[in-house]
Amino acid sequence: MFRFFENLVDPYADYPQEDTPPTRLWPFLWGYLKSFKHVFWAAGVMSFVVAAIEVWLIAYMGRLVDLIAPGGEETVWRDHGWEFVLVGVFLLTLRPLLQVIDVALLNQTILPNVGTLVRWRAHKHVLRQSVGWFENDFAGRIANRIMQTPPAAGEVAFQIFDAVTFALAYIVGAAILLADADPMLMAPMIVWVLMYIGLLRWTVKRVGPASKASSDARSEVTGRVVDSYTNIHSVKMFAHDDREVSYAKDAIEHARQTFIREMRLFTIMDVSLVLLNGFLIVSVVGWGLYLWANGLTTAGVVAAAAALTLRLNAMTGWIMWAVTSLFRELGVVSEGMETIAQPVSLIDAERARELIVTDGTIEIENLSHHYGRTSGGISDLNLKIPAGQKVGLVGRSGAGKSTLVKLLLRFYDAEDGRVRIDGQDIALVRQDSLRRSIGMVQQDSSLLHRSVRENVLYGNPNASEDEMIAAAKQAEAHDFILDLEDGQGRTGYDAQVGERGVKLSGGQRQRISLARVILKDAPVLLLDEATSALDSEVEAAIQETLYGLMEGKTVIAIAHRLSTIAQMDRIIVMDSGKIVEDGTHAELLALKGQYAGFWSRQSGGFLQTDEEATE
Q1: Cβ contact 159:325 at 8 Å
Q2: Is 316 helix (H, G, I), strand (E, B) or coil?
Q3: Above pLDDT 70, what percent of the chain?
Q4: How far is CA 243 from the centre of its chain?
Q5: pLDDT (mean) for 472-487
Q6: Cβ of 340: how many Cβ atoms within 10 Å?
Q7: Across all residues in the chain, what is the average pLDDT?
Q8: Closest-CA residue to 581 (of 386, 390, 393, 418)
């Protein structure tokens, strides 16, 4: 039975992805939840049925009081015995069955699957965002919103059918029951309903914004805390534990104050509700007693009216809390939308094709990109790199080297100009096919918080164990990998490397990253200070590996240690976003320009700093 209800909706089913999700709350939610349409209808109907049965049951208890009134003891069982039996059978069989269907739709179908579907699709949407998008926010805040929004969306759907539709059906049924007994009994209830709706509107109007502010504050706390943990080496190195505690405390205190303001609303709501419910009980039961005392109604009607008001008294707190909780969760969803509903700006062109690399020729025409500013980045850059050529790229910090690499990978769309690989404009091919064709070893070699095996195989998940080990050996990583052991006792290639590879040294991370790129075996290779984290002995061995890896590939290597690129086919010098020198190592030395100055001033093979250049 459980499986039947749990499998009514597949949260992982294919769906049309939107580059620009709705920015209004209900269209946004419906975009995620429309696959639950039939389930929602069934849940709504069952909620009304269950409420109707409960109101009928109270009414029947009133009838029972009248049937067993003094004087009818001898005939009540004879005249109504079969009625009592049928009601008993109904209560023991059909009512539990209907209740099971109602609860199963809520607990087994809606609650687990709505949250799962929203989290799955939100994560897919966020992963489609560009690198630049991630660089503009805290990873912790993004993750917090991905984690908070789905259960909030699930709670919204749950409360609508568990509380809102049930309450509507119950109040309508109660009004009909009282009106049937005596229309005047409905009057105080109508007054109470109007006051209750007024209180509800007052609370909801304030709970939504207060909940959003509280959710924002919690996300800020998460962002600050995760930022400290992610950069724990810097925190410890500069002995700034107290500063980080203070930095977090400001956000924690702001979160406490926003939560305090939110909870004040609930306190006001609870006190007001007690007063309203007192009015309901006194007015309905008091009027019923008046009618009974004057012979205008029966004791059963008074009993049913009293039972209804007491039940409503018990329910109203739950309903109010459920509705305010509903709007509070909508506030959480609204806050999450600030991340999840952001449009994907870096998208594949319509009818984008796969990039097919035959030779690896790179052509850059009039390329400009300044990150939306008036300076920085690169300006009107033209460059052609023939297939198989090895190019070294040098220049001071801020010269535009990293920007050029990011544009080659299409982490950003260029503001002007184009890049072609084998004659194919990279803006018109699929992003994933472009990046599959490019291997890159970065200066900051961060690894996934998984096993060494998973990290190396990230370069080619279909590679065999022997191919993976061969790549690790080629990167001079196999021997130290065999000596690894994590805190859970896993060893070698099964050892976990920690977040961003924190359990390994910089050189070890660099060699695993290199093994990953070797396994990828892409036709275009980008090296950004690929050996900067290695000691001299390992670097000498790795250099041979790198030269072997470069064979038959088009290579662009960024380096401050000029000795690592002196043997390149060609060296490009960049300054202020432009190419200022282009030639072989010998040609550039003979030119006696910037490169020659770098070479003569470097110490130990490093490019001089900006301060040294101005001396």
Answers
A1: yes
A2: helix
A3: 94
A4: 29
A5: 89
A6: 23
A7: 84
A8: 393
Burial of 82: CB neighbours in 10 Å, binned 0-12, 13-18, 19+: exposed
Residue 13: how many other CB atoms lie within 10 Å: 9
In whole angstroms, what is the distance from residue 509 CA to residue 392 CA?
A: 23
Distances (CA, A) of 279 to 183, 255, 309, 323, 364: 18, 37, 10, 21, 79
Helix (H, G, I), strand (E, B) or coil at 438: strand
Q: Alpha-carbon distance 324 to 201, whole Å?
A: 10
Convert 137-172 to b/e letters by CB count within 10 Å (16 or more is b): ebebbbbbbbebbbbbbbbbbbbbbbbbbbbebbbe
**Cα separation of 94 and 487, whole Å?**
56
Phi and psi at residue 369, to the nearest 5°: -160, 125
Compute how many other C-beta atoms are within 10 angstroms of the C-beta atom of residue 492: 14
User: Among 486, 430, 432, which residue's Cα sits nearest to residue 454?
Assistant: 486
Pairing status of strand 524-528 against strand 554-558: parallel
Tokens of 94: 């059909």
Our CA angle for 521, 527, 529, nearest 5°, is 145
Q: Among 563, 544, 565, which residue's Cα sits nearest to residue 476?
A: 544
The structure tokens listed for 286 are 């008091």
Q: How far, in Å, are 94, 176, 201 from residue 64 at the CA level?
A: 20, 19, 38
Q: What's the per-residue H, E or C state across 42-70? A: HHHHHHHHHHHHHHHHHHHHHHHHHHCCC
pLDDT band, residue 426 (cuts 50/70/90): very high
pLDDT tops 60 at residue 143: yes
Residue 69 token pair: 């009134």
Residue 337's Cβ-count burial label (10 Å; 0-12, 13-18, 19+) is buried
Which two structure tokens, joined as six digits, stand for 448? 């996934």
CA–CA gap between residue 152 and residue 175 (Å, rounded): 33
Q: Are strands 424-425 and 362-369 parallel, antiparallel or unpaired?
A: unpaired
Alpha-carbon gap, residue 56 to 62, rounded angstroms: 10
Q: How many CB atoms lie within 10 A of CB 11?
A: 17
Tokens standing for 551?
């064979």
pLDDT at 258 over 60: yes
What letter would DSSP give residue 429? B
Q: What is the mean pLDDT of residues 123-151?
A: 84
Distance of alpha carbon 52 from alpha carbon 102, whole angstroms: 13
The letter for the amino acid at 522 is A
And the tokens for 460? 């080619």
User: Quick one: which of 184, 158, 196 has its CA closest to 47?
Assistant: 158
Higher pLDDT pick, 537 / 589: 589
DSSP code, position 423: T
